[in-house]
Amino acid sequence: MDLIAHLIKSLSTNEYGRALCVAYSGGADSTAxxxxxxxxxxxxxxxxxxVHVDHGLHADSAEWAEHCGRFxxxxxxxxxxxxxxxxxxxxxxxxxxxxxxxxEALTRAVQGNEWVVLAHHRDDQIETVLLKLxxxxxxxxxxxxxxxxxxVGGFLWRPLLETPRATLRAYVEAHSxxxxxxxxxxxxxxxxxYLRHEILPRLIAHWPQAAAxxxxxxxxxxxxxxxxxxxxxxxxxxLRRDERQLDAAxxxxxxxxxxxxxxxxxxxxxxIPAPTQAQCAELKRQVDGAHADxxxxxxxxxAEMHVWxxxxxxxxxxxxxxxxxxxxxxxxxxxxxxxxTLTLHASDVDAAPPNLDPPLTVRLRRSGERIKPAxxxxxxxxxxxxxxxxxxxxxxxxxxxxxQDDVLLAVADRWSSDAGAAxxxxxxxxxxxxx
Length: 435
Hints:
Layout: H1 3-12, E1 20-23, H2 28-38, H3 41-44, E2 49-54, H4 61-74, E3 79-83, H5 94-109, E4 115-117, H6 122-134, H7 139-142, E5 148-151, E6 154-157, H8 165-174, H9 191-206, H10 210-239, E7 240-242, E8 245-247, H11 248-252, H12 256-270, H13 277-288, E9 297-300, E10 303-308, E11 311-315, E12 326-329, E13 334-335, E14 341-346, E15 360-364, E16 370-371, E17 380-381, H14 382-389, H15 393-396, E18 400-404, E19 407-411, E20 415-416, H16 418-427, E21 429-434
Parallel strand pairs: 1-2, 1-4, 2-3, 4-6
Antiparallel strand pairs: 5-6, 7-8, 8-11, 9-10, 10-11, 12-15, 13-14, 14-21, 15-18, 16-17, 18-19, 19-20
């Protein structure tokens, strides 16, 4: 079956979609896909367009975007160019960071009912499955990429997952289509390229049926993964305490086939990257060995997971605390180095908060602070107040301490001393910490 006939068959079985938007890199694969769709009245009737993401990682990236614009003009397909900045601060690797930036850009750019069409083919699927296998993935990972999955109210559609790369190259050559050859695709230091250029040719030379067999195994794993996904969702609903808390013991007690999936599903909803199998195993070890007086923390690029009071707490990495930091505060919004903003709210909702004159001083928690909360008979250590109030340990050092000279008036908007309560009542304001 030729490429256009294959796409016509795919479109006819997916009639319920609306506009088609091809993710067009300018490479041979996406060029073949876009051109073939542009030759189909069925695709043009669904508002065919293209989007190109310029990662800015290569000196010629702007020229590549111009090439994509010229090609789309010749086939009369509207093109949108999205320029992104690839953030490598999460230490997840350049390829992963670029992929994240690309999908974030697509998320912002596509309309709610569009199908984003991707040119991933059978060879890409095989490489993905082998990479997942080498990372110790279960059925979800070994199932590889799905042909269709929800995306921003529409779908991500991969109609070529059963099509070999050679078919796309033959199509490009037969139609003399111009395309970009990204030099990074030849860099065998990258894991996927090493598999593509060094390993797969040897596998196929010895086992000619290897590609078909791997693709078949991936399909079987996807079927199994769909059944596991149902159990994962049920387990997650049962174990979730709130958006950022998961029952730790219940999670640890899950079967191996569910434990990683529950974690991935939960973290994905929070926009936090999932751990590797080794990091997941370390987290389970920390949960199983946790004592009441310990607060284990397991970190990986882009995430940190705390274990406290029988729950898992997930969050992006917290910035380090500048313990000696302090600042004068005249009542205008004050950005805190540990995150959040300290503001004043007027007691009279129709009045503007006054400036504090002389200014107060704001510090972060250091050690040994004590306060006698307004109305309380006893002076208490902040450590005891935080513990009694159920404030997680990793948040306690981030609370702003509000001083007048060296007298602690308030701990954010949580506790005020008698002196603090009197002060804020006199000036007609109250502090508010937007963490």
